[in-house]
Amino acid sequence: MARRKAGNAAALVAVLIVAVAASAGAIKLCGVDRTAVDACRSYCAVGSGEASPSKTCCDKVRPAQWDCLCKFKDSLPDDIDATRVMDLQNKCKCDYPPATCVN
């Protein structure tokens, strides 16, 4: 039980760090900063009808470390579609090997 509480606390700290880093803009997490989040938000929004992300979005996410982002995909806000976020690696033709996030 104590081990589970420690794990939950660590996950909460990680989410808070992600939120603070993203809001700071200059700090990168997994190779992505706030400008990438802002550029890709409309494509990644739940219910988005956009067929593909913008060129600006793709330019911003190309340096992303997708395997690293897998760790945070379940911590996204409710208005962001995690499947569309992770699909950016294919839609934007990123050079990194595709991530295979395991649940």
TrEMBL record:
InterPro entries: Bifun_inhib/LTP/seed_sf, Bifunc_inhib/LTP/seed_store. It comes from the Eukaryota. Residues 16-101 form the Bifunctional inhibitor/plant lipid transfer protein/seed storage helical domain. Residues 1-26 form the signal peptide. This is Bifunctional inhibitor/plant lipid transfer protein/seed storage helical domain-containing protein. Keywords: Signal. Pfam families: LTP_2 (PF14368). The lineage of its organism: Eukaryota, Viridiplantae, Streptophyta, Embryophyta, Tracheophyta.
